[in-house]
Write a structure and sequence with these properties.
By secondary structure, this protein is α/β, with parallel strands linked by helices. Helix content is about 50%, strand content about 10%. It has two domains: about 10-190 and about 220-240, Glucose-6-phosphate isomerase like protein, domain 1 (Rossmann fold, 3-Layer(aba) Sandwich), CATH 3.40.50; about 250-414, Glucose-6-phosphate isomerase like protein, domain 1 (Rossmann fold, 3-Layer(aba) Sandwich). It contains 13 helices and ten strands. A five-stranded parallel beta sheet has the order 2-1-3-4-5, with helices on both faces. It has a five-stranded parallel beta sheet with strand order 7-6-8-9-10, with helices on both faces. β9, α12 and β10 form a beta-alpha-beta unit.
């Protein structure tokens, strides 16, 4: 691993945060400036597949890759874009056994397979699963570091270079968020979807007589693709700016939170509890994976527990007591004075997070919250000891900036 990620002798933690923010902005601009046109075309091809009944199958074998696979499936199945359809998606990850065997059993001809971590140690099984899917006629997507790396044989291989796996993961998250957001554009131009009998712009169905303009023929695919390309660039610019502002505006908070975590997780028993809902649950998965990781021995492995991963507990409490208590009950069971807790919320108002934060505070557990919008109730009522705000109203952008914030937090803890 490159020593450029080490705190080293770069000055104060806040100066280091500014440096890390700038690095992310440069990498973001490089990737999306180069790939925007291909991303637009990939969205079109995905829409064609979905229109013919395909499913999106996300594959990840390592702990960080698992969080990305889970993130993809929850975003496509449970869209937060108002008025947009749910699209069929499933995640295949290591807790279900060998991911290659799972893929062989579940992927069907014509599906879309997207692989995470194919280029990492142990990721060969993901690359092999993508290759097998391609032989079965599936569309394949992967994110190798460079040509020749595992995954670069995918039909849609988006090279995400760099020696910092955290920055690479952040860029990949933005890329699959953009695919998810913009694939819907082509459902509004269904005449451009290959293999359909209708060549109309929209499918207005029985109400078409009310909207005759929606039956216009669609012929200019290049114009739509160029619109989508420009939208890719706008979204990438937005997330690049939000990452930088989130890190710089919250630098003092991140520095203080890192010092607290260093003290608590450096003890013999101190541990980090992580929680969130939906896409934010995958952030909890990822931050726990990151804190357990040693970065090739340069960092200390830290005790961390993901409160989103035990489905029997989550569903039992939700069904018998209420969703508001799914995390509180686990804080009672696992939390101890001297621990720390990190909660992820795009709104800053998720009731089950608020209940868990209150329980943690009452038990002597230090709390960190990463929130969006204006911070919501968590920020307004100071319900966490350290509150990091990503000031945006767009959920994908908030989650992308939060990933940068907790990755930098991990780096500061060391």
């Amino acid at each position: 691993m490159s020593s450029s990620r080490s705190l080293g002798e770069t000055g104060t933690a806040q100066a280091r945060i500014a440096e890390l923010a700038e690095r992310r902005g440069v990498a973001n601009a490089e990737l999306f400036g180069r790939e925007a046109k291909r991303i637009a075309s990939c969205c079109h091809r995905m829409a064609e597949r979905f229109a013919r009944g395909a499913r999106l199958v996300a594959i990840g074998a390592t702990p960080p890759a698992r969080s990305d696979a889970r993130h993809v499936s929850v975003e496509f199945v449970h869209p937060v874009i108002v008025g947009k359809r749910a699209l069929p998606a499933i995640a295949l990850t290591a807790e279900g056994g060998d991911v290659g065997a799972q893929a062989a059993a579940l992927i069907e001809s014509g599906d879309i397979a997207i692989g995470f971590g194919a280029e990492d140690v142990g990721g060969e099984v993901v690359a092999a699963a993508l290759a097998a899917a391609a032989e079965d006629g599936c569309m394949t997507i992967a994110f190798p570091r460079a040509a020749g790396d595992p995954g670069s044989e995918a039909e849609w291989a988006f090279a995400v270079p760099g020696d910092d796996p955290m920055i690479r993961q952040e860029l990949i998250e933005t890329l699959y968020h953009v695919l998810w957001e913009l694939v819907h554009v082509f459902f509004d131009h269904r005449g451009l979807l290959e293999g359909r009998d209708s060549k109309r712009t929209h499918d207005a169905g029985a109400s078409s007589f009310l909207y005759p303009f929606l039956a216009e023929d669609e012929t200019d695919l290049d114009a739509v693709l160029d619109d989508v390309r420009r939208s890719v660039l706008l979204k990438s610019d937005e997330t690049g700016a939000l990452r930088v502002s989130t890190l710089n505006e919250n630098a003092a908070t991140l520095e203080a939170a890192a010092a607290m975590l260093g003290d608590r997780l450096g003890s013999a028993t101190g541990k980090l509890l992580a929680l969130g809902n939906g896409g934010s649950a995958t952030d909890a998965m990822d931050v726990v994976a990151d804190f357990r990781e040693t970065d090739g021995g340069r960092w200390s492995s830290r005790r961390a527990l993901d409160l989103t991963e035990d489905a029997p507990i989550l569903t039992a409490v939700a069904n018998d007591i209420g969703v508001e208590e799914i995390f509180q009950r686990q804080v009672i069971a696992y939390g101890r004075d001297g621990d720390a807790l990190i909660a992820f919320s795009t709104s800053g108002g998720s009731e089950n997070l608020i209940v868990a934060l209150a329980e943690a505070r009452g038990r002597g557990i230090a709390t960190i919250a990463m929130v969006g919008y204006d911070g919501g109730r968590i920020a307004a009522e100071a319900l966490a000891d350290f509150v990091v705000i990503s000031r945006s109203q767009h959920i994908p952008r908030i989650q992308e900036a939060q990933a940068s914030a907790y990755h930098v937090l991990r780096e500061l803890v060391g």
